Amino acid sequence: MKKICLPLLGMSLLAFSLLFSSCKKDDETVVTPPTTTTDVVDITSVVQSKFLTNNGVTVTTSGDNIIIKSDGRPNNHKTPYWGVGHAMYEAFPAGHATNPGGQILVQNYTMTIPAKPKEATTKEATTTFAIGMALNGVPIFNNTEMAGQPLDAGTISSFDGAGAHPAQAGDYHYHMTGKYTSDNDANLIGFMRDGFPIYGRKDKDGTYPSNLDAYNGHFGPTTEFPNGIYHYHARNENYLNTGYYILKSGSYYGTKGTFTK
Ligand SMILES: [Zn+2]
Ligand SMILES: [Zn+2]
Fold it and tell me: Any idea which ligand is nearest the CA of 159?
């Protein structure tokens, strides 16, 4: 039934305001604000500008998704895994393996992530495979190695200065922070498969965040997202006293996209 709104002379103020508000309900569209601010952050422009697209990484968009392709090699930094004699070769950190038992081979990675990442209703655990991609196109792994076993001292001795090593297929990957991604700072390291960015151990104000959730993330401003975004931090825990810091363990905060090779 269409309501008729006519101001009536002699009407009490209360009755008038009730009638007026009931008329407004019919004629106005109620705009519901987003329930969380993370819903409105579009990561597209940061992804496009921060991935090293001059290093064999390509970024394209498709509908609500962003597609990042890479050859998986750390083309922007040194590591012993380039091999002795390579221009980008450097020695292992002191006390580590002295002979690179593996090598870096070209891969064909495609990571598809949402342009507007959202919190998942049900949180899914990360597994032993690529759980994200660093800005240079190298995959990010969690704190486990084959068969989901937590990284141990033996595996860690194979890590280079970047907290990384190649698996058997020559697929180089980061498990830890390191001097070429983030070393006790607030650097943007890359993006996880759920579309949320991951930073070093510090926030942009130079402090270690104290309100991280079970996924080692929180909402707040970063250099790349000054108005705030949900973001992960590398774990501020000297893992097994090795001097390395795990990038990401546990579950995703959002819903993971695909990562294929
Ligand atoms: Zn590994
Ligand atoms: Zn933070």
Answer: 1
